[in-house]
Write a structure and sequence with these properties.
The chain is of the alpha/beta class and 313 residues long. The protein is 29% helix and 17% strand. The chain has helices spanning 25-36, 74-77, 87-96, 113-122, 141-150, 184-199, 213-216, 224-239, 250-257, and strands spanning 9-13, 42-52, 56-58, 64-65, 103-105, 110-111, 130-136, 159-165, 267-271, 274-275, 279-280, 283-286. Strands 7-2-8-1-12-9 form a six-stranded mixed sheet, sandwiched between helices. A two-stranded parallel ribbon has the order 3-5. A two-stranded parallel sheet has the order 4-6. The radius of gyration is 18 Å and the shape is globular.
C-alpha cells in the first residue's frame, strides 16, 4: 500500500475473550473498524495481557496464538489466529524510541487474547503481520503516555497501532444482572475518561486522582493501553497546523476539539458502554470516522461457575 496517508490508530475495550466468537454491538463495531481502515502493512498491538517487568516487542516470524485464560469452553481454546510476525518492525520500534530500551522477544510470547479476540473480527483473514509491544509494569503513566507519542512516526509508514484493554476493569465486581450497564462509579469514570479523550487526551494520565479510580482500576494493566492512544493523539495534535486564533478563543477551542487539521488528529468514540456492572467496553479511534459502527447485542459473559477474577478475562 502507499504510505502517503497517515494510518489511524485505535483503543478497544475487549472484555471477555468469548467476544471473539460472538456478534454483538461491540464486535460489530470492531468489524466495521476493520472494513473502514486502510490496509496496513503491519499491526502493532499494546495488549493488557502482556504485562511484564520490561518493555519488549515480539520479534518472531510466526507468533503463536496464546490462550491465556481459564474456565472457558473448548471452542475458545480451539481458536487460532495464524497471523505472521514482522521481526523488522521490532527493530523499527527499538530504533524509534531510543534511548528507551526495548527488548526483542523471539520465543516467549506471541498473540494473546487481548489481541486476537479483537483482530479476529477486524481482520478475519489473519494475513496482516502482527507485532505486540509489552506493558512494562514498573513504569508510571507518564512513561506509557510518552512512549505512545514516540511511536507516532510508525503511522506514516503503514503501521496500524492498536491498544487493547478496558478503561473500567474490576473483575471482582462483575454482576450478570447488569449485563448492559455499569455501576454508578463505573459509568461515571467511563464518562470522565471519554470527556478527556475527546478534548485533551493527555489528561487521561491524571485519572489516577479520580474519586472512582480505585474501583474502576484496581490493577493498572487494562487501563494503561489507553495511555498509548492518548499519547498518539497528543503527538498528532502537536504536529497538526493550529488555528491562528488567540489562545482561549472559541475559534481555537473548536479547532482543538474537532479535526485539528487531520490527518490523524481527531479522537472519536467507536462504540461505548459498560457491561456487567464493572467493565467498560468503550472503544476509540484516532484519525478515522467509522460508518455503520452501531450494532446490537450484549457483550459476552464470563464463564459460569468460576469467579470472573479467576479467568484472566
Amino acid at each position: 500500500m502507499s504510505n502517503t496517508r497517515t494510518m489511524p490508530a485505535a483503543f478497544f475495550g475487549h472484555g471477555s475473550p468469548m467476544n471473539a466468537l460472538e456478534l454483538n454491538r461491540y464486535t460489530h463495531a470492531w468489524r466495521a473498524f476493520g472494513q473502514a481502515v486502510p490496509r496496513p502493512r503491519a499491526i502493532l498491538v499494546v495488549s493488557a495481557h502482556w504485562y511484564i517487568n520490561a518493555t519488549a516487542v515480539t520479534a518472531m516470524p510466526r507468533p503463536r496464538t496464546i490462550h491465556d485464560f481459564y474456565g472457558f469452553p473448548q471452542q475458545l481454546f480451539d481458536v487460532q489466529y495464524p497471523a505472521p510476525g514482522l521481526p523488522e518492525l521490532a527493530e523499527e520500534v527499538s530504533d524509534l524510541v531510543q534511548p528507551t530500551w526495548v527488548g526483542a522477544d523471539v520465543d516467549s510470547w506471541g498473540i494473546d487474547h487481548g489481541t486476537w479476540s479483537v483482530l479476529r473480527h477486524a481482520f478475519p483473514d489473519a494475513a496482516i503481520p502482527v507485532v505486540q509491544l509489552s506493558i512494562n509494569q514498573f513504569k508510571d503513566f507518564g512513561y506509557h503516555l510518552d512512549l505512545g507519542a514516540r511511536l507516532a512516526p510508525l503511522r506514516e509508514t503503514g503501521v496500524l497501532i492498536v491498544a487493547s484493554g478496558n478503561i473500567v476493569h474490576n473483575l471482582a465486581g462483575i454482576s450478570v444482572q447488569l449485563a448492559d450497564t455499569g455501576f454508578d462509579w463505573a459509568e461515571r469514570f467511563d464518562a470522565d475518561a471519554r470527556e478527556r479523550m475527546l478534548t485533551d487526551p493527555t489528561e487521561i494520565a491524571r485519572l489516577d486522582a479520580h474519586r472512582d479510580f480505585a474501583s474502576a482500576v484496581p490493577t493498572p494493566d487494562h487501563f494503561i493501553p489507553l495511555l498509548y492512544l492518548a499519547g498518539l493523539a497528543a503527538a498528532a495534535r502537536d504536529k497538526a497546523p493550529r488555528d491562528k486564533a488567540p489562545r482561549g478563543t472559541a475559534a481555537q477551542d473548536a479547532a482543538s476539539r474537532d479535526e485539528v487539521a487531520d490527518p490523524g488528529g481527531a479522537t472519536r468514540v467507536l462504540v461505548d458502554g459498560c457491561a456487567y456492572g464493572s467493565l467498560s467496553m468503550t472503544a476509540y479511534t484516532l484519525g478515522l470516522d467509522v460508518p455503520d459502527a452501531a450494532g446490537t447485542g450484549l457483550a459476552a459473559e464470563a464463564p459460569e461457575g468460576i469467579p470472573a477474577d479467576g479467568t484472566n478475562l
